[in-house]
Amino acid sequence: MTINPFFHRVLGWLGTLIMAYCIFVIALGLLQRQFMYFPDTAQFDPAEWALKEFELFPVTTDDGLELRSWYVSPAAADKITIVFFQGNAGHLGFRNYKIRPWIDAGYGVLLVGYRGYGNPGEPEEQGLYKDARAAIDALIVRGTPEAGLVFYGESLGTAVAVEMATKYRASALILEAPFTSMVDVGAYHYPMVPVRYMTKDVYDSLSKITDVHMPILLLHGEADEIVPVRLGRKLFAAANEPKQAEFIPEVGHNDIYDFKVQQIILRFIGNLSTSALMEKTP
Question: What is the full DSSP assignment across the chain?
Answer without folding.
Answer: -PPPHHHHHHHHHHHHHHHHHHHHHHHHHHTHHHHH-EE--S---GGGGT-TT-EEEEEE-TT--EEEEEEE--SSTTS-EEEEE--SEE-GGGGHHHHHHHHHTT-EEEEPPPTTSSSSS---HHHHHHHHHHHHHHHHHTT--GGGEEEEEETHHHHHHHHHHTTS--SEEEEES--S-HHHHHHHH-TTS-GGGT-S-----TTTGGG--S-EEEEEETT-SSS-HHHHHHHHHHSPSSEEEEEETT--SS-GGGTTHHHHHHHHHHHHHTTHHHHH--
